[in-house]
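REVIEWER CHECKLIST
Item 1: Sequence provided? yes
Item 2: Single chain? yes
Item 3: Sequence as submitted:
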Amino acid sequence: MIKKCLFPAAGYGTRFLPATKAVPKEMLPILTKPLLQYGVEEALAAGMSTMAIVTGRGKRSIEDHFDNAFELESQLAGTSKEHYLEEIKTVIESATFTYVRQRQMLGLGHAILTGEPLIGNEPFAVILADDLCTNGNTSVLSQMTEVFNKYQCSIIAIEEIPMDQTNKYGVIAGNLVDETDDTYRVTDMVEKPEPKDAPTNMAIIGRYILTPDIFDILRNTKPGKGGEIQITDALLAQAKQGKVIAYKFKGKRFDCGSIEGYVAATNYFAKQQGIV
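Item 4: Structure as written out by the authors:
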């Protein structure tokens, strides 16, 4: 059973400046919860108990959020506002949080490799917190663990996107394995192709389950666009061995790395809670 989930959280969040000058983008709230907490709760729902977080400079508030706040708790104890802390206290008590710093921003592949000491030699999940996913019944990561249990190889979540947006995503090509669970055995992967060069409109989103051999592959992966080590390049090496399954997940996804997606997510959750 997969017990560890890795959260790359060292990026600058430049699209949300100046808000992210002092506040990590992973801590931007959707209503009353930061994006990263939604991701942690999704991992907990999938049966994972160790949250491995790759941070960087200026991200100290992430550690503070997932820690006890004795002064605040004592101030609220016995008051009508005490219940506001119950949800985050439950999260803190349900998981172990470990941290490592990514000293240079060299791409998602490099961030995942930086997290190797926190993971060790076992399969693990990866959540990109600014891809906020929701499903009323079974979380996306829970769906993916079921797929992993069936195929025992790396699993990537995909969704169909408009062809004119392929240059924003890693895009896959693959052969349908099982129509009932929307799984494809990946044959090719291209990082942010122009629409005319994209093999399909099936884009990788910020949910992965990776086998530990990915670390050795990443160590030997040469930097690509912008001098970054791309996870898609490492996954392609696995795919050439038939060891990557793409899963078309069930649920809604919001790209909270963009202002439009962030606003859409806020409005969606506000409606779900009857606020608007």
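Item 5: Key structural point noted by reviewer: The domain at 4-272 is CATH 3.90.550.10 (Spore Coat Polysaccharide Biosynthesis Protein SpsA; Chain A).
Item 6: Recommendation: ____
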